[in-house]
Amino acid sequence: MVISGPDIGILNVSQVVFQQMNIVALKRHSVEELIACLRRVPLMQRPEVLIYEQALITLEQIHPDYLYPTQNYLWLEELRKTQELRWSLAELGVDLFRLNGYLTYTVRQEDGSEASYDLYPPIVEESIEADGTVALLINDGMHRLYLARQEWVVPLVTYIRGVDKAYPYYAYPRREKWEGLDLLADNPDPKTYLKKCHRLRHNKRLYRDFQAVFINVGRPRSRLLKK
After folding, report:
1. 138: part of which helix (H) or strand (E)?
2. pLDDT of 91 above 60
3. What is the pLDDT of residue 187?
């Protein structure tokens, strides 16, 4: 199914002007298609390992307070762009927090070119830590889940259980969950700021490569909007 949407102009957010996303096409994909794609997601440095091939994958509504971020900060610019994406999709009748399956949306950019992006519900992995704690850690979609929490919404997430214990998520969940999270104006320099507590020195060995299966999911949305 394809939906067309107009360019609706300029939005002022906290004294920073963002151009509303000009979403010109949108296609819905089923839950079954989402799960089939996730089963093909490899590890970035070991493409023969399909990390979710044997996992239990379901869509569940989970309160954000039960989830564990793995990152110590939120990037304000990305949060605002996520909020703009929520509003732009809502104009087309799509709830960012209730994606029953996944979407492919196309944005017309300032130069007239078009770019497509896939969007699936946030990825939450069940992770059993060294002390026996079962942590529902946020693999992907932290800014969306923070926004859902701020809006008092219980979002629909992609909940993945039974991942091979030899390949845990590449960073540890934060013990404090959302408490003490930094909201930063700029993406911090990893030389002076601890973004995540990694499990390995060569942490990318455990990195889930969603970009190998989905379209433009591992990139920031900075090209979608004009400041």
Report:
1. strand 134-140
2. yes
3. 85
Cα–Cα–Cα angle for 95, 84, 25, nearest 5°?
Answer: 65
Domains of the chain: residue spans and CATH = 10-212 (3.90.1530.10)
| Strand, helix or coil for residue 111 | coil
142-150 helix and 76-91 helix, angle to the nearest 10 degrees = 70
> What is the rounded CA–CA span in Å between residue 208 and residue 183?
25
> What are the backbone dihedrals phi and psi of residue 153, each rounded to the nearest 5 degrees, phi first?
-105, 140
CA–CA gap between residue 94 and residue 100 (Å, rounded): 10
Strand bridging mode 42-43 / 23-29: unpaired
Q: What are the pLDDT digits (tens) for 145-195?
A: 999 999 999 999 999 999 999 999 999 999 999 999 999 998 889 899 999
User: Does 15 have pLDDT greater than 50?
Assistant: no
